[in-house]
Amino acid sequence: MAAHYYSRFRYLLVISIVGVAVAPLSIHASHPASGQPEFVSVEPTYPKIDYSVVAEPEAVRRGEYMAQIGDCIACHTDSSVDSQAFAGGLSIKTSFGNFFTPNITPDKQTGIGSWSEADFLRAMREGIRADGSNSFPAFPYVYFNRMHDSDLKDIWAYLQAIPAVKKENQGNTLSFPLDIRFLQYGWKALFFYWDQGEFEVDPAHSDAWNRGAYLVQGPGHCSMCHTPLNVLGSAKKQHYLTGAPVEGYWAPDITSSGLATATRFQVADVFFKGTLINKAGNVRGPMAEVNHDSLQYLTREDSLAIAEYLKSVKSTQPKVSQSIRASQPHLKLGKQVYTNACSACHSSGAAGAPRITDSSAWNNRVQARPLDKLYQHAIGGYNNMPAKGACPSCSDNEIKAAVDYMLKTALTASQYKNFQHSLSASKPQSAGVNKPVSVKDEAK
Ligand code: HEC
Ligand code: HEC
Ligand code: HEC
After folding, report:
1. In the chain, what are the domains?
2. Alpha helix locations (H) across 191-284?
3. What are the tens digits of pLDDT across the range 210-243?
4. Chain centroid to CA 274: how far?
5. Does the Cβ of 401 fall within 6 Å of ligand 3?
6. Model confidence over 283-317: pLDDT tens digits?
7. Ligand 2 pocket test target in 222, 253, 294, 312 with most atoms within 8 Å of CB
8. Nearest ligand 2 atom to alpha carbon 277
9. 243 near 232, Cβ under 8 Å?
10. How many angstroms does the Cα of residue 347 sit away from the middle of ligand 2?
């Protein structure tokens, strides 16, 4: 299977510091040598288990399945170096330094072999390590927290049965004060304790629906990619599963509206056959990895349960409201669209997007091609730039307004003047930039 190994960390994970400061932290896995996110050719493979020698073969089997759905192997294996499954060491590069995923094999010295089952359950539910310190939320315990004890115990049995690998955890190089695990309490107090708790069955729905909801909210941690994050790196509940940018890809809307035209079987085919909904081609990027390491192992029944649940999810779409559409002047509309649908990449530079603060990058682009081409790229997609950014429901005009706003904000006064001059020199364009505007240039 040609799954490529691209990092799956949300590139915008923000960690709050108790009452001190809130700092944006861009995060992605990267190759240690180059420091660049890149495709890695070695794929992690699940270790072979000899069920005839393990103490509780049934629990281990069930635990293996749950560990697959939880995709533990993806983050806890450094495929670029040695591909020792679950031995950790995957580098997560952040703007403050690197940190590395820990070894979760049963090695006593370097793994979690000396932990008790209770230590493990507490780590999975509360993000508290055996020594009592806090885990960083790059470990998706906020989702695993929803899991049933029985499933977590099965995973524990499985992790005890895989081969122990002696591999020292690498020290993190986060700079002060982010290295202080204690400060993670700030993040927890703000977000985590809200929805802490094991998944509860909703008797108004079918068994399959409940199973699907459990898999999506708990072990599958689908929200980590498919829900937009707020400024503190926590998923925005009201926009649950309505889609979000991840590593230069767009994790699409997988609620009832996004999947309205798809049958349950077509949704299941996303996992098994790697085909996108509406014949949109093959699954690529982070989702291809998730399929390879995780979702391809779903039973048919569980995949259809997930589909049944997803097709029922109702969320508020984060989009420009009608009133704004109708009443706002062009650039104000553009700013609105930009904030909602473009800033995720263009403010941070995620996925290689030209930053809105990088005037020379934008100047080079307006010099290199006519404005209509820029519009066309923003509307139709261009390399890592997804079609219409994060707003597939936006009209062409709204996207053009966003481009106009971006150019007005990004270019320096003289670059902008020059650019407008070149516009009026060439044939008239559909640009809104020539209209009188009253927008404060703030992002410079
Ligand atoms: C998206 C990436 C990701 C996934 C998926 C993931 N983990 Fe982790 N995990 C991490 C990171 C990062 C840490 C370290 C956090 C820190 O340093 O505070 C971690 C820490 C842990 C720890 C604590 C170990 C220690 O020494 O502190 C355990 C136990 C653990 N993970 C188990 C699991 C299991 C079991 C699964 C699958 C059900 C899983 N993880 C899935 C990223 C992930
Ligand atoms: C690491 C990030 C990540 C995780 C975790 C993830 N997805 Fe995705 N998903 C994506 C991306 C990115 C795409 C788009 C892939 C593409 O464009 O080729 C996608 C596509 C999909 C699609 C296809 C939608 C369409 O319109 O074609 C479905 C369905 C889906 N994901 C369901 C899930 C479910 C269910 C889970 C959890 C069990 C999940 N995903 C977990 C990133 C992720
Ligand atoms: C998922 C990340 C992402 C989002 C969201 C996004 N962009 Fe981009 N954008 C990119 C990347 C990456 C490039 C650079 C593509 C290249 O040159 O290869 C880019 C380039 C562009 C360009 C320059 C195209 C050219 O021809 O040089 C424009 C204009 C643009 N984006 C507008 C927008 C607008 C408007 C939105 C919101 C509606 C938006 N982008 C949302 C990632 C994104």
Report:
1. 12-169+178-310 (no CATH), 322-425 (1.10.760.10)
2. 207-217, 223-226, 264-272
3. 999 999 999 999 988 888 765 445 567 788 998 8
4. 19
5. no
6. 888 899 999 999 999 999 999 999 999 999 998 87
7. 222
8. 27
9. no
10. 24
